Amino acid sequence: MATAKLKKARLSPIRSQRGFTFNEVLIAIALIVIGILGFSLNTAGVIRGNQVSSSVTIATNLAQEKLEELTAQTTFTNVTDASDANNPITAIGARDGRFTRTWTIKDSSVGSGLKEISVTVSSTEYLFSRDVVLATLVFTG
Fold this sequence. Notes:
The chain is α+β, with helices and mostly antiparallel strands and 141 residues long. 45% of the residues lie in helices and 27% in strands. The longest helix is centred in the first third of the chain and has 50 residues.
């Protein structure tokens, strides 16, 4: 019976408590916050990259559309920096958009009977200027 009383006396109230200290909780919260901030910054970068990629894809499609329209012609006259309109165009070619489209038709330096057609679509977004240029040669016979 004396040993049972002795064992109870050895246990101090501080050691018998379970849980986390205040410092452990603060460190855990700080690590979680750092992880969330890193994830959110990465997510913002991915979103920005997707928007730029979308703009480049739209510009490429607009340039390809105009290039196909110009190469379908039967006669070609030299043109320098022609454009659709004074207003920028949208992704479907309508007015009041964010893209400008210009094209040039000139004699090719590769050989006679060839015309070089070049279409440039420009977009200024997110403080970055993007230009997509597509070019081809057409035999005029």
